[in-house]
Structure formats: C-alpha cells, structure tokens
Specification:
Elements (H helix, E strand, L loop, with lengths): L4 H23 L6 H30 L12 H11 L4 H7 L4 H9 L7 H11 L28 H11 L8
Length: 175
C-alpha cells in the first residue's frame, strides 16, 4: 500500500525499472531454455501488476474516484490511511489537525496504527469525518492451538498445556 507521495514516487520509479527489465530480457534473450525465460518474465510481470494496482489505488484515492473502501478490523490501519489520502491530507496536514507532529503520524503509519489507543482512534475518525461500520459476529467458535499464541523464548508450551489441563483451568490469551 502506498501511504504518501514519497512512496508513490518510489513505486512509479520501480515500475519503470521493472518494465525496462522485461524489455531487456525479451530483446537480449538467446536463452536455450524458453521455460526459464517465461518464468523470469512472469515473475517480473507479477511485481509490475502489484505496482500498477498500488499506483491505481493511490491515484484513485487522491483524485476522489475511490470514495468508499471496505476493510475488516485487521485492516483498520489501511482504512485510516486511505481515508487520509482520500480527504487530501498529507501527513503534515493530518498531524496539524490531530494536534501532533508529522513524525508522530509517520510513526503511526509505519506501525500501521498498532499502538494507538481507542480514544486516539476516535479522534482520528472525527478528524477524517468518516463513517466506520464494524460488525461483531458472535456465532463463530474457534479452537485455539499453541501455534495461535505468541510464546516467549525459553517457555515450553506443552508443559504449560499439561499444567493447565491438570488444574482444570481455562486460560484465554489474546494477541
């Protein structure tokens, strides 16, 4: 996802380099293995497609063509950034509106807003003047395994499981 004008410029530059690479490979190919040539071109083309999609999305937000995005809770940070871009705010202007520094906005975005409080999220939504629609689905049941949890180094998850089972205790840990 392109988050700012600098990343936009870098992505456009990389797109050009990858497009040029395909031309060079195609024009200078004297490969005895056409399958290898096709694999090389396909892998480069795959990255070109990603760059083009990101550029199109960024430009669409900037031009007001994209006015609505649907994001799950896990992608809330993308929705915030897309809303900022669609409203025409660069990071400096957005920081001024939130009464914080541009560096703080850059940090929020580099961390995908993972360390903001609910209160700060509410302030952001008000400043962006966006409607956020969240649905909580209660009918899903999930069975957790030890691989679902972040376990500190040196901790034996099997030993912990056995101790919990022996005590008959249920422990719920959220990531």
């Amino acid at each position: 996802m392109i988050k700012n004008e600098k990343q936009y410029g870098v992505t456009k530059n990389n797109l050009k380099k990858f497009q040029d690479a395909i031309k060079v490979i195609s024009e200078n190919s004297n490969s005895k293995n056409p399958l290898l040539l096709k694999l090389q071109i396909d892998s480069i083309q795959s990255q070109i497609d990603i760059f083009e999609e990101e550029i199109k999305a960024y430009e669409g937000l900037k031009k007001g063509i994209i006015t609505n995005v649907s994001r799950g809770f896990e992608d809330l940070s993308c929705g915030i950034i897309e809303s900022r871009i669609a409203k025409g705010y660069n990071q400096k202007e957005f920081a001024r509106l939130l009464k914080t520094s541009e560096q703080q906005i850059q940090k929020y975005e580099s961390e995908n807003y993972s360390n903001i409080s609910l209160k700060r999220l509410q302030e952001i939504v008000v400043v962006l003047d966006v409607d956020v629609d969240t649905t909580f689905s209660f009918n899903k049941k999930r069975h957790f395994t030890t691989s679902d949890f972040l376990i500190p180094q040196g901790i034996n998850p099997v030993l912990i499981q056995n101790k919990i089972r022996n005590r008959g205790t249920t422990v719920l840990v959220c990531r």
